[in-house]
Design a protein that fits this description.
- This protein is an alpha/beta fold and 328 residues long.
- It is built from nine helices and 14 strands.
- The chain folds into two domains: 273 residues, Metallo-beta-lactamase, Chain A (4-Layer Sandwich); 31 residues.
- The strands form three sheets. Strands 1-2-3-4-5-6-7 form a seven-stranded mixed beta sheet. It has a five-stranded mixed beta sheet with strand order 8-9-10-11-12, with helices on one face. The chain has a two-stranded antiparallel sheet with strand order 13-14.
- A hairpin with a 2-residue loop joins β1 and β2.
């Protein structure tokens, strides 16, 4: 567990996804921001008990957004601690099983895009515990020293958190603090402020604007949904560099036309581009199937062939010339 700033701790789980324990300012009270992937509830509970005291519980769980790697353990944790799960109203259709997020875009390129073909699209249903983030105040529930910022593009109701007193930023997936396209960088936790979640970004212009909004905060300490904590001058400088040089992908479904969403879910999707991989995989699979069938056929014939009878032995093993008998 790493400390982002006073009263803010980051728990990196499986070297991939982060959750945050944020103290409210009142002794013994805290809030959990995000819950990681499904099945991580026991690990998060154990970390909370160690950080605070055995049997502790947060005032609430607040989600930066509802993607599976951020809300995956929310249902189990909310039931264990008997607390609500708070999210921006634009996220509620997705975390209450009333809508699906815009489909991931495997054609945008990169290792994460390749893997996104196999990610589940249906989320756990949090209807019984979900509550809407109040929009009439920029102060998040229970976090009196903080303000939340709407940073869409990756998810319609994605929010980040900023504490002005020490310029601490929890940036959600508006960007990442490691290179998302490098598996070694992710596994080793190599710090680098970069574009986050490319195959799940449904509006690239909003993504770019969200990064610019957060860069203008000039943060002194940063924690995101993915990657290690970054502190000091490198935090603001790295985020400003990304904001000023935000690279759009060379291709992808949402590059020229974003998905449109509203309070009920997805309103419009751009045409689905051709994905060559399934056809290529099918062709490779068919080739392997044919090769396997041929191997079985040839192997079967070989097994069925009867062994030939031993030939007649000759004292002289040289072949006889035409018209002559062996040994003649």
């Amino acid at each position: 567990m790493d400390q982002v700033a006073a009263g803010v701790h980051q728990l990196r789980i499986k070297r991939f996804v982060n959750v945050y324990f944020v103290e409210t300012g009142t002794p013994g009270e805290w809030v959990l921001i995000d819950t990681g992937l499904p099945g991580l509830d026991k690990e998060i509970i154990a970390a909370a008990d160690k950080l605070f005291y055995p049997g502790t519980h947060p005032e609430a769980i607040i989600l930066t957004h509802g993607h599976l790697d951020h809300m995956g353990s929310a249902k189990e944790l909310a039931a264990h601690w008997h607390v609500p799960v708070i999210a921006h109203p634009l996220e509620l259709p997705y975390i209450t099983a009333k809508a699906l997020y815009p489909p991931s875009d495997p054609t945008v390129g990169g290792s994460l895009a390749f893997m996104s073909r196999f990610f589940p699209t249906q989320l756990p249903d949090l209807t019984d515990v979900a509550e809407a983030l109040p929009l009439d105040s920029e102060q998040p529930p229970y976090l009196v020293q903080w303000r939340w910022l709407h940073v869409p593009g990756h998810a319609p109701g994605q929010i980040a958190f900023f504490r002005e007193a020490d310029r601490t930023l929890i940036g959600a997936d508006a960007f990442a603090t490691t290179n998302h396209e490098s598996i070694p960088a992710v596994l080793l936790g190599i710090p680098e402020i970069s574009v986050a979640g490319a195959p799940f970004n449904y509006d690239w212009e909003k993504c770019r604007q969200s990064v610019r909004t957060l860069a203008d905060l000039n943060p002194a300490a940063i924690g995101c949904g993915h990657g290690p904590v970054i502190k000091g001058p490198e935090a603001a400088a790295g985020l400003r560099k990304l904001a000023d040089n935000y690279q759009l992908p060379a291709q992808g479904r949402y590059l020229d036309e974003p998905a449109l969403t509203d309070a009920s879910g997805v309103e419009h999707l751009p045409p689905k581009p051709a994905d060559k991989l399934p056809k290529q995989a099918a062709a490779i699979g068919a080739g392997l199937l044919l090769a396997g069938a041929a191997w079985l056929l040839v192997g079967g014939r070989r097994k069925k062939r009867k062994p030939s009878k031993p030939g007649k032995k000759y004292a002289d093993t040289t072949y006889a010339k035409p018209g002559r008998r062996p040994g003649a």
